[in-house]
Write a structure and sequence with these properties.
Layout (H helix, E strand, L loop, with lengths): L2 H5 L1 H20 L8 E4 L3 E4 L3 E4 L6 E4 L18 E7 L2 H4 L9 H16 L4 E6 L7 H12 L6 E6 L19 H5 L2 H20 L5 H15 L7 H20 L3 E6 L3 H4 L8 H10 L2 E2 L2 E2 L1 E5 L1 H7 L1 H10 L5 E4 L4 E4 L11 E2 L2 E5 L1 H18 L1 H7 L1
Parallel strand pairs: 5-6, 5-7, 7-8, 8-11
Antiparallel strand pairs: 1-2, 3-4, 9-10, 12-13, 14-15
Length: 386
C-alpha cells in the first residue's frame, strides 16, 4: 500500500504545500530568521532561550543565551568570586538593535571599566550583563531586575531609558503554550502567518470594536507619551515610574550595589535644539536620593550634551531643516532615516537606515559618557573596594 493511500492524498497535498512554503520563505525572505519571542506571564514576553537570529535587516547575528537574553553565558554568582558585575536593563536601544553585541554600549563600558581597574591595580574581572529586551517599558525592566538580575547581586545596575518607558505595562502577550510551541514558533511559515495574517487581523478587529475601552485607553496613553510626555496630563505616568525606580534603587542598594539611570538621547529630541528631555526628570530624582560619605546614592546620566558635541555639523543641518524635513520614512522597513541630502552624515551616531537606534559610534559615545560620570561620582573606587 502506497504512502498516498495510507495518509490520504488531500493530507499529502497539504503537507507538501506547507513544506514548499517553508522552504520558499526560508530561502527568499527574512521570515523565521529573526529572534523569536515567547509569552511570559510575569514579564509579558521574552526571547526564547538558546537561539541565534538576525537583526531586522538580516545584517547582524543576535545570539540569545540560555537565560533568554542577548549576551554570552554569564559567570554564576558566588560570594567574593572576583567578578565586578554591570547589569543593564532597557529596551531595543540597549539591546543593541542593528549592531554586534561586542559593539553595544554595555560591552564598551565593560572594556572601559576593566581598563580603569587594571590601571589602578584593582584585581577584579568586569562582566557586563545585557538584560535588555526589545519593546520593554520600565515596569517590565523592574520585574526583570527582581526575577532575573537580583540573584546575581550586580555591583552596578544601569537602566537605559526613554520617555516611552513611562507607559503602563499591558500584561502578558504572545501565544498560548502548546506542544512543540518553540519548535513551531521558529519556523518561517509560522513567522509569516503571525506577522502578515494574525497580528494585522487582530489589530483591525480591535480598531473596529468601538466599545473596546481597554484598547481606547491604551491608544490615548500611547499618544500622550509620544506627543506630550512632559505635559501635566502625563505627570501621573512619571509619578508611577519614579516610585517604581525608588523601589528598585532600594533593592539594589540593599544588595551592596548602585543604580544608574541613563537618559538615552533620541534623534527626535536632538533635532529640536531647545526640547525638554527626560534627564530633567531623572537628574533631580537621583539628587533626591542623597549621599553617603560624599558619594551619591544614585546617579542620572544625561548624554544629550555628549551626543551634541559628537555630531555638531550634522545636528546643525537637521535643525536648520526642521524635524519634519530632516527625516525620511522608509515604508518597506518602517524606520526613519536621515534625509540623504543632509551633509556630514559621517558624524551620525545613529544607524543611517534606522534613526531610532544607535550605530557603533553612538554606542561608544554613550559608554564613554556613562564611564566619565561613574569616575566623577567616585563610585568605581567605592564599589571595587567594597
Amino acid at each position: 500500500m502506497s504512502p498516498r493511500t495510507l495518509i490520504g492524498w488531500r493530507t499529502l497535498v497539504v503537507v507538501l504545500v506547507f513544506v514548499a512554503l517553508e522552504g520558499a520563505l526560508a530561502a527568499f525572505t527574512g521570515y523565521g530568521k529573526w529572534v523569536t519571542t515567547e509569552k511570559d506571564a510575569e514579564l509579558g514576553w521574552r526571547p526564547i532561550p538558546s537561539q541565534t537570529g538576525w537583526s531586522w535587516d538580516l545584517s547582524v547575528a543576535e545570539h540569545i543565551n540560555s537565560r533568554g537574553y542577548r549576551d554570552d553565558e554569564w559567570t554564576p554568582a558566588r560570594e567574593d568570586d572576583g567578578v565586578f558585575r554591570i547589569a543593564l536593563l532597557g529596551n531595543s536601544m540597549t539591546y543593541g538593535s542593528g549592531v554586534a553585541i561586542e559593539d553595544t554600549w554595555g560591552r564598551e563600558l565593560e572594556r572601559l571599566v576593566q581598563a580603569e581597574f587594571d590601571r589602578s591595580g584593582i584585581d577584579l574581572r568586569v562582566e557586563s550583563m545585557n538584560f535588555a529586551v526589545q519593546g520593554y517599558v520600565f515596569e517590565q525592566m523592574a520585574r526583570t531586575y527582581e526575577r532575573e538580575v537580583r540573584p546575581f547581586r550586580p555591583d552596578l545596575v544601569l537602566v537605559g531609558t526613554v520617555p516611552f518607558d513611562a507607559s503602563p505595562f499591558d500584561g502578558a502577550s504572545g501565544e498560548q503554550d502548546v506542544p512543540y510551541r518553540r519548535t513551531i514558533a521558529k519556523t518561517a511559515s509560522h513567522d509569516f502567518l503571525l506577522k502578515v495574517v494574525m497580528l494585522p487581523l487582530k489589530g483591525r478587529l480591535r480598531l473596529g470594536w468601538s466599545k473596546d475601552a481597554v484598547a481606547a485607553e491604551k491608544a490615548r496613553v500611547d499618544t500622550l507619551i509620544r506627543e506630550r510626555p512632559y505635559s501635566s496630563d502625563a505627570e501621573y505616568l512619571w509619578d508611577a515610574m519614579r516610585a517604581r525606580m525608588e523601589d528598585i534603587e532600594a533593592q539594589v542598594e540593599a544588595d551592596g550595589g548602585r543604580l544608574v539611570v541613563v537618559a538615552l538621547p533620541q534623534f527626535s529630541n536632538l533635532v529640536r535644539e531647545s526640547a525638554k528631555t527626560h534627564a530633567e526628570i531623572w537628574t533631580p530624582w537621583a539628587a533626591s536620593r542623597g549621599e553617603t560619605a560624599g558619594v551619591p546614592n544614585a546617579l542620572a546620566v544625561d548624554s544629550r550634551p555628549a551626543f551634541e558635541k559628537a555630531m555638531p555639523k550634522l545636528l546643525a543641518g537637521m535643525r536648520k531643516l526642521g524635524f519634519k524635513d530632516a527625516r525620511t520614512f522608509v515604508e518597506d522597513s518602517g524606520y526613519w532615516i536621515v534625509t540623504p541630502s543632509i551633509a556630514h552624515q559621517d558624524e551620525n551616531l545613529f544607524l543611517d537606515d534606522d534613526m531610532g537606534h544607535y550605530g557603533e559610534r553612538g554606542h561608544r559615545v554613550l559608554a564613554q559618557d556613562v564611564f566619565d560620570e561613574l569616575k566623577r561620582s567616585g563610585w568605581l573606587e567605592v564599589l571595587a573596594r567594597d
